[in-house]
Design a protein that fits this description.
The complex is a heterotrimer of chains A (293), B (234) and C (337). Chain A has 293 residues and is mainly alpha-helical. Chain A has helices at 2-32, 39-55, 60-83, 91-113, 138-160, 162-172, 174-179, 184-206, 218-231, 236-256, 267-279, 289-292; strands at residues 128-131, 134-137. The chains are: A mainly alpha (293), B alpha/beta (234), C mainly alpha (337). Chain B: InterPro entries: AAA+_ATPase, ABC_transporter-like_ATP-bd, ABC_transporter-like_CS, BCAA_Transport_ATP-bd_LivF, P-loop_NTPase.
Chain lengths: 293, 234, 337
């Protein structure tokens, strides 16, 4: 029983990271209808920037804040320069461009930082808190708290600010948005910027648990794709919940199903993606139109 | 003093297809001008060219600014509210959110929701409902109300009565007349229902296959023999 | 004889002479180009002709490679005899993937197949009893037969692979020009019209997937024959990405493009590695993006455009021309039945 609860908590903690990256995917999908295959690599690149800042002697917290700012700008620039020319294009074009970005960013990271493993400091203290008799690692609590914090901030921005309202409008109907004076292009840039920030957070959260190298996000992005697919590609809450479900499913499958074990854990997100797409393509919380995209 | 809107020798179209041929017209401050003509004559295209939804050749000036080829969102900032055909409300957003978006480009003051709800009480009752759940008539009201949130100097109205029941159409034009009288908002109205719009317009232009074939005051246009036969039905 | 046919024959003669003018090291690289060309051709049949996006063709390539390796190493089969088996197994696998793929549209199919590519090395490791796991599996390349003993090993392997490639290309060319190809193009460009004309969408799409996977499988066999060794690292998702790069660079919906594409993915990393191991990836990525902006029809599209220019002024996109012609042809054909 105790092992079960621990596995569950571990799954939710890991799932929070998947959720953060899935949020990034959802933000971009909602605003531009693009599944950004490069999202994980951008997150990895951001994490390297944070690592570089920490190596340069900047305190971790400040380094992460700076990284988030750089990511915001970076995401906006990428949208404007690389994505804008093909926006609204054929699916193959969009897939190819974001895949190209994936390969490009991964290559750049290997060029700049090499392929060696590096340690990345954790934001959270070691040890665990005692919650109703069960020891829960501070890190697990921290991961969940950060994800909830991100969701909270995004919710506030989207539901309670004019900027957020304008971003939602631009995602719903670009032409009508222009007619009320919304600079749609800038909203799309911001969408990519916010997504890059969510991704960067996912990166700095996952890096201490693994080692930082250019392939850091390779597996994570697959789990996040599964989370976003499960939750519905246009639903931020779905992304978070999907992240948790996938995290727990992965932990349980890896711990309890012998055939799967540690090697084949990757089949969990794949199975989920396939099952969801075949049974309920819009995901748990997505709107049906998404399935037709 | 030049007119609020000046359109001079405008050609426009979609891709290689040219729809408008040498269109020139003016709308003075506070003036209401009707654009009449059969389907496909280029009325909607004229409005789209003015609000920058497509790139015209020729010259379009609004309040003295040359806006030819300028981006739509920047033209809106000059106080131009375009209510497109088919309404263009944001279906998944609430009535209130739609109205707040209408005031997005306004420079001064926050959105004055109460005024919209006074003009259109039905919208007040449904302020937290999603726009997509409104009836067609209510969505049209919402589109007009949203345009008014800008406190526009110039409204471009594309078929405001399309698909509305006759009593709703009368109600709508009553509101438009009220806005015109209270606030002196200039309007360029595209309308199938020529009788209705000529009653309240100051001037009118008749378009045929992308050209203006008849221009004059509302009375002159109403009196024109060919116009009467073609559009007014008597 | 048409000019195109003459060009192909000249190309074939050059291809046959090629191993006699290069070092053994280069010849082996060209041999791999042949394998990649077959894989790219297979992916292009799917991507270019039926419009389905697969980011997982590396998985079928791996499957073919392992079928050959296992049959040769464990059951002592002759190499060439394993090729039909690899093709059949991969066709079955492609058919199986093609069925759920019917219900998945563009981006989602890309996602699922990407997952397939990512899972491939893990699956190979998991079934280590059969595959040799991380250690890999040695299946020595076939040796030069007695009557060809004037050939060096690398020359022999090159010519052997060329002999496998040629029928694959001839078959593909026949396929895309024939009834099936035209139906596929119609399915891609106008699924609703295709349905109206009685083209059985589901059947064509799943068959396209099967054929495409079979090509990738044969390419995998060619890889094993050439390299003589298989291991999971050779079949990571980067491989699937290179196939996509090959198709995009060579040109969608072209048969000849597969060769340009394969040359590109084999030699760019070779030359880039002189500067930095990661440079190849940077170039790949940059080129993929760039091609989508400036040359969406690939190298072959560019060649066609240059050739078409004097005749068809104002035509911006050579592929569009192809689509129009092919699509119309298929429509007429179906109507005539």
């Amino acid at each position: 029983m105790e092992r079960f609860v621990e596995t569950l908590i571990d799954g939710i903690a890991t799932g929070s990271i998947y959720g953060a990256l899935a949020l990034a995917l959802v933000l971009i999908y909602r605003s531009t209808g693009i599944v950004n295959f490069a999202q994980g690599e951008l997150a990895m690149f951001s994490t390297f920037i944070a690592w570089g800042l920490v190596e340069a002697g900047i305190p971790l917290g400040l380094a992460i804040l700076l990284t988030l700012a750089v990511s915001l700008v970076g995401g906006m620039v990428i949208e404007r320069v690389l994505i804008r020319p093909v926006e609204g294009g054929q699916e193959l074009t969009l897939v190819t461009v974001t895949l190209g970005l994936f390969i490009l960013v991964n290559g750049l990271a290997r060029w700049i930082w090499g392929s060696t493993n590096r340690g990345f400091p954790s934001l959270f203290p070691d040890g665990s808190a005692n919650l109703v008799g069960i020891g829960v690692a501070w890190e697990s609590l921290g991961l969940v708290a950060v994800l909830l914090g991100v969701v909270g901030v995004l919710w506030l921005v989207f539901q309670h600010t004019t900027l957020g309202l304008a971003m939602r409008a631009a995602a719903v109907d670009p032409a009508a948005s222009r007619l009320v004076g919304i600079p749609v292009g800038r909203m799309l840039m911001l969408g990519w910027g916010f997504a890059a920030v969510c991704g960067a957070l996912a990166g700095v959260l996952v890096a201490p648990r693994l080692f930082l190298d250019p392939n850091l996000m390779g597996p994570v992005i697959i789990y996040s794709f599964a989370a976003a697919t499960l939750g519905g590609f246009d639903s931020p809450f779905g992304a978070v919940l999907g992240g948790w479900i996938i995290g727990v499913a992965e932990a349980l499958a890896g711990g309890y199903v012998d055939f799967i074990g540690q090697d084949l854990k990757i089949l969990v997100p794949l199975g989920v993606i396939l099952a969801v797409l075949l049974i309920r393509p819009q995901g748990l919380f997505g709107s049906p139109e998404v399935a037709r995209a | 003093m030049s007119a609020l809107l000046e359109v001079e020798g405008v050609h426009a179209g979609y891709g290689p297809v040219n729809v408008l041929e040498d269109i020139s017209l003016e709308v003075g401050e506070g003036q209401t001008v009707a654009l009449l003509g059969a389907n496909g004559a280029g009325k909607t295209t004229t409005l789209r060219a003015i609000s920058g939804m497509l790139k015209p050749r020729g010259r379009i000036r609004i309040a003295g600014h040359d806006v030819t080829g300028r981006a739509t969102e920047r033209i809106v900032k000059l106080g131009v509210a375009h209510v497109p055909e088919g309404r263009g409300t944001f279906a998944p957003l609430t009535v209130e959110e739609n109205l707040r978006l209408g005031a997005y480009a306004r420079r001064n003051g926050g959105p004055d929701l109460e005024r919209a709800f006074t003009l259109f009480p039905r919208l007040g009752e449904r302020r937290h409902q999603r726009a997509g759940t409104l009836s067609g008539g209510e969505q049209q009201m919402l589109a007009i109300a949203r345009a008014l949130m800008l406190q526009p100097r110039l409204m471009l109205l594309d078929e405001p009565s399309l698909g509305l029941a006759p009593n709703l159409t009368r109600e709508l034009f009553k509101v438009l007349r009220q806005v015109k009288e209270d606030e002196g908002t200039a309007m360029l109205v595209v309308e199938q229902n020529a009788n209705l719009v000529l009653e309240f317009a100051d001037a009118a232009h008749v378009l045929e296959t992308g050209r203006i074939v008849l221009s004059g005051t509302a009375d002159e246009v109403s009196a024109d023999e060919s116009m009467r036969k073609a559009y007014l039905g008597y | 004889m048409s000019r195109t046919r003459i060009a192909w024959i000249v190309l074939l003669v050059l291809a046959i002479l090629l191993p006699f003018f290069f070092s053994s090291y280069r010849v082996t690289q060209f041999t791999l180009v042949l394998a990649y060309a077959v894989a790219a051709l297979g992916l292009n049949l799917l991507l270019g002709y039926s419009g389905q996006i697969s980011l997982g063709h590396g998985a079928f390539f791996a499957l073919g490679a392992y079928v050959t390796a296992i049959l040769v190493a464990k059951s002592g089969w002759p190499h060439l005899a394993t090729i039909p088996v690899a093709a059949a197994i991969c066709a079955a696998a492609g058919f199986a993937v093609g069925i759920p793929a019917l219900r998945l549209h563009g981006l989602y199919l890309a996602l699922v197949t990407l997952g397939l590519a990512v899972a491939t090395p893990q699956l190979i490791k998991r079934f280590d009893g059969l595959t040799g796991g991380t250690q890999g599996l040695a299946a020595p390349s076939p040796s030069v037969p007695g009557f060809l003993d004037f050939l060096a090993d690398d020359q022999w392997l090159y010519l052997l692979n060329l002999a496998i490639l040629v029928p694959m290309f001839v078959l593909a060319a026949g396929l895309v020009r024939g009834r099936v190809g035209r139906a596929l193009v119609t399915v891609r460009d106008n699924p609703i019209a295709a349905k109206t004309f009685g083209v059985d969408l589901a059947a064509y799409k799943t068959r396209a997937f099967a054929v495409s996977a079979a090509y990738a499988g044969v390419a995998g066999s060619m890889f094993t024959i050439t390299v003589g060794f298989v291991a999971p690292e050779s079949f990571g998702f980067a491989l699937s990405f290179s196939f996509l790069a090959a198709v995009v660079v060579g040109g969608l919906a072209t048969v000849a493009g597969a060769i340009f594409g394969a040359l590109f993915i084999e030699f760019v990393p070779v030359y880039a590695a002189d500067v930095n191991e990661a440079l190849a990836a940077v170039i790949y990525g940059g080129v993929l993006i760039l091609f989508m902006y400036v040359l969406p029809t690939g190298v072959v599209g560019l060649a066609r455009r240059v050739r078409l220019r004097p005749k068809q002024e104002g035509e911006r996109d050579a592929v569009v021309v192809d689509r129009g012609v092919a699509g119309g042809g298929a429509g007429e054909r179906v109507r005539a039945q």
